[in-house]
């Protein structure tokens, strides 16, 4: 919460007075991490190989037509 005031006229030098009060709140407990399913190392390698094989077949068929 803050309060303040200003003194002076438009276009002329003036002063500004402000005061603030900071309320300290205790830190909250961190949220529990949710596990995210991922592919294993070997599964990812197999998937990459299969996709590369499909791409090679597709390119081979395109060159024949």
Automatic annotation (TrEMBL):
Pfam (any one): IPTL-CTERM
Q: Which keywords are on file for this protein?
A: Membrane, Transmembrane, Transmembrane helix
InterPro entries listed in its UniProt record: IPTL_CTERM
Write out the ranges of the annotated region (Disordered).
1-34
- Please verify whether the record's keywords include Transmembrane helix: yes
Q: Where are the transmembrane segments?
A: 42-60
Q: Determine the domain of life of the protein's source.
A: Bacteria
Keyword match Disulfide bond: no
Limits of the IPTL-CTERM protein sorting domain: 34-63
What is the recorded name of this protein? Answer: IPTL-CTERM sorting domain-containing protein
Tell me what organism the protein belongs to: Diaphorobacter ruginosibacter
């Amino acid at each position: 919460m803050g309060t303040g005031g200003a003194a002076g006229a438009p276009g002329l030098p003036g002063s500004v007075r402000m005061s603030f009060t900071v309320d300290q709140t205790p830190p909250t407990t961190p949220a529990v991490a949710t596990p995210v399913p991922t592919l294993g190392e070997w599964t990812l390698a197999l998937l990459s190989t299969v996709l590369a094989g499909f791409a090679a077949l597709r390119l081979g068929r395109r060159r024949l037509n």
